[in-house]
Amino acid sequence: MPDRKPSYTQLTHDVVHGSPEPLTLDEIIEKVNTLRPISTKNPRSTVRGAIGDSRLIVPTGDGRYGWMQRVISGSIIRQTLRESDILMEVLQWSEELREALWPTFFAKQKHRDLGPVLALLPNGKTTEFTLEHLFEATWGTHATPEFWKWFNNLKANAGDHLLFKVEDGEAKRYSVTFQSRTERDEEAIAARNDVFLEMIEKMLNRPSGAAPWHISAHALATGLYQHPIPPDPLYELLRDTMWGFANDPGMISPEPKLDPLLSELFERPAQVYDPENPPDLPREYDPNYGRRRPRPSLKSQEGTFTSYTFRVNHRAFPKVWRDIELAEDQNLEDLHLAIQQAYGWYDDHLYSFYMSGKAWDNSSEIGCPWSDSRVHTHQVQVGLLELKEGQKFLYLFDYGDNHEFDVTLLSIDTQAKKGKHPKVVGKQGKSPPQYPDYDEI
Question: What is the pTM of this model?
Fold first, then answer.
């Protein structure tokens, strides 16, 4: 059997990838033709087709084409911190930062590398960032303890920034610095924002338009982020414009504006929470998409993790209980939904958890997404509550009928085995009625 010759697509990839500098179309054609004479009727169309078929060969804005991981080196991207980032110790990647950290995200399988990247912190320590699917259309990372140790010393507030620099895109090496909101050079940032808005307008005026990821990739490839003062994140630039990207599923919805009264009360920037339209609500929790359900744990499907087993019993029926096991990356919204499923109740009323065990204790309340509490169930992961075995708190369901459940942490397993979570691991007694006949009782 004769040896198969490499395709022109593969040769085009090899030529651009092997060149330390971007190449013009004619230079690419010449180099490909040297490796294997182009026998098609239109060599330019053949090579153009190979370029268009690749997400890693990108136009650099000067009539040349470069390898994406290489041309992004030197870029600096601004990441605005959100209240939920600080509260949950989870960073949500903006579209352009996800593109810079994982430039092969949309590449074909054989070129895709979504593994961890390394970043140098100002204290000289190196940390690792991962790509995690947090919820619908939103990617982020829980980061390492080393990162959060450095970050927590900053006393950062919502609205401050992390600046990510691509030190070497091919080697997956980055660096991170911090900039508070008060340190911003507003005039210089506004000028950079104008440059980006002009670029965005040109892209959106194309006949085919442009998706957010096309805009961010183009900006990175053409060197618009290779400036010592990066612009604001794309979703911030676009949310108040006529283009209306704030509702695009490919963009992370902006956080609500800061509330000066709440900020003064809590002695830190606090944001307005709209209970009629909860921000960052995953699709599984949204009643607009059908029956709500717990979100499966990612960590429990990957390998060893920490699990938490809770015993949940109605205070009016102390001999009836359900034992529910959750993974560390699941939240109190998952626990609520797991309780509803375990007891066979209808999830049709508001609810809250009270960590003090006392109903209506506002200081310890973690309310459902549609409540007016300060912290909400879909924002609080179980693994970040610092719970201890034997600790008890209150789950109150239905603010009218006031069903009160004691939730007791039975055990913590730091070496839990791979499996699907949440899950019921024990039960006793028949479920009490959700809507009892009080006259009969």
Answer: 0.59
